[in-house]
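Quick question, first post here. What does this chain look like in 3D?
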Amino acid sequence: MPPRYIVGTSGYSFEDWVGPFYPPGTGRTGMLDQYVKHFETVELNFSYYRIPTEATLARLADKVPDGFTFWVKANQQTTHRRDRSIAGQFIGSLAPLAEAGKLAGVLMQFPQSFHRTADNRGYLAAAIDDFASVPLAVEFRHCSWDDPAAVAGLKDRGVTLVVPDVPEIEGLYRPAGPVVTTSTGYVRLHSRTAAKWYAGGAERYDYDYSGQELQGLLAAWSAVENEVERVYAFFNNCHRGQAARNAEAFRRLLGQI
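> Answer (accepted):
Ran it through. Tokens below.
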């Protein structure tokens, strides 16, 4: 059986989606209600900036239908400040999603400054242990992690490797193709414009994937379809509703729409 593709976007609460994607007049409190009409998964990114409360995640769990799932981005204390002390609090906050069967997992996205050194390998191993009670996916940004030993280590620990779709830039982690470490594939589509990558988040992710590029993505993942049961595809090019439109276009290619 081919893998099941589960397609969504990196976040859903964007004012500039109103008009291009959400109906005119949609307020922030109504955005998730609109989002779930189109997709069955989402990445929660606000958790990177502040640890979510159980009450907040309980409200989100109640607002989405059965079968809808969340990937929750790990807090910056863990991934960017190398502080493991908040792991227990963070995992505890996820209880409402886990109890409702709506927690897909936790996404750890490390910065480009996080190189594959002995110290960082040790920190990563310890952080993975901290989050062993939840499904875990890891995204690297530095090319030093493009190493068979890193892939083997994640595979041994049952951690999903995120394959980022990014521009061809020296030093940036960009595998030649899909890499699989668990029965779950995970791809995050950011941008392919090298000139804007270091211009800041507002411009870095301002990109509109073409139909040809999406077809190429699907063809690439078909090469490993016998190794995975499901593939999560998240579009992070969120400006002006591009991520949502591209995600729907990808779903059309898959025959889901």
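The two ends are 20 Å apart (CA to CA).
The longest strand covers residues 103-109.
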